[in-house]
Amino acid sequence: MTALAALAEDGEPLIRWDWIGRNLSGDIAESLREHLILSVTPVLLGLLIALPVGLACARWRRIYPPVLAATSVLYAVPAIGLFVIFVAFTGLTYPTVIVPLALYTLSVLVPSVVDGLRAVPDHVRQSAVAMGFGPLRRLVQVELPIAVPVLMAGLRVATVANISLVSVGALIGIGGLGQLMVKGMKWPGGGFTTPIIVAIVLIILLALVADLLLLLVQRLLTPWERAGRGRRAGATDGADSADGADGTKGADGGTRAAAPGGTAGAAGDRAGTTAEPEEVR
Fold it and tell me: 47 — phi, psi (to 5°)?
């Protein structure tokens, strides 16, 4: 018999709002705070590692395949296995979860950095060199800004994935909102679904908010993309207006072209009518 079936037989509601009210500022708030720390810190740490590694891979292309293979192998290792291994070195502390999750982000962030830098057109680099930009200045002011959209796409994926993976840490006692799931499953007398549902809803909301915030940061860092879309829209509207004006002009031109012919014919008729009496005389 499942926990939900047992709850249905016992008349237990799926969500107990009174429990949420009693624990909102206690267990729920503390689990959410811990989840935020364990989610954001690995992404920042992974970004600090991925930037120099990605720059090196973009500069020396031969090292990229082995680096990509190593990050992919690390990502294939089950999270709970890495957590258990790190317990022997760091104990039941935050680094036990943060370090493995930071390693997982490298499989997404390193390719994002490399692909973003490779997306910079060669003529842009050459123009920067012609303007006297040194390697560091060219990287900071030209290459990285152009690579921001690709890099932010990878950062968004890594952040959302981390927000989900943090819950696995609850199996070793450090899991943020995952602790609420464990509490619901271990509730005396059978499963207690309220903390489980609360944890799932908060994790989904946290992932959505984080993704929207990163998207907003990307828009703030790339104002030229909005300007480019505005210019393209204006050019499209201008082309449509020009096409309409050409059609009107063609119609008017045809009308005006017909009018002189008609006038000339009328003038000819009048001339013929006037010439007839002279021939009679």
Answer: -65, -40
pLDDT digits (tens, 9 = 90+) for 90-147: 888 899 999 999 999 999 999 999 999 998 888 888 888 888 888 888 888 888 888 8
Give the C-alpha separation, 50 to 5, whole Å.
48
Q: What is the pLDDT of residue 244?
A: 54
**Cα(176)–Cα(170) distance, integer angstroms:** 7
Contact status, residue 122 vs residue 143, Cβ threshold 8 Å: no
CA–CA separation, 69 and 149 (whole Å) = 24
Element (H, E) at 129: helix 122-130
Residue 280 has pLDDT above 80, yes or no: no
**CA–CA dist 263, 275 (Å, integer):** 18
11: left (phi over 0), alpha (psi -120 to 50) or beta: left
Number of Cβ within 10 Å of residue 208's Cβ equals: 12
Q: Count the Cβ atoms, other than its own, within 10 Å of residue 167.
A: 23
The predicted model scores a pTM of 0.73
Tokens describing residue 3: 């926990």
Q: Tokens 């390719």 belong to which residue?
A: 111
Residue 75 contacts residue 101 (beta carbons within 8 Å): no
As to burial, measured by CB atoms within 10 angstroms (0-12 exposed, 13-18 middle, 19+ buried), residue 241 is exposed
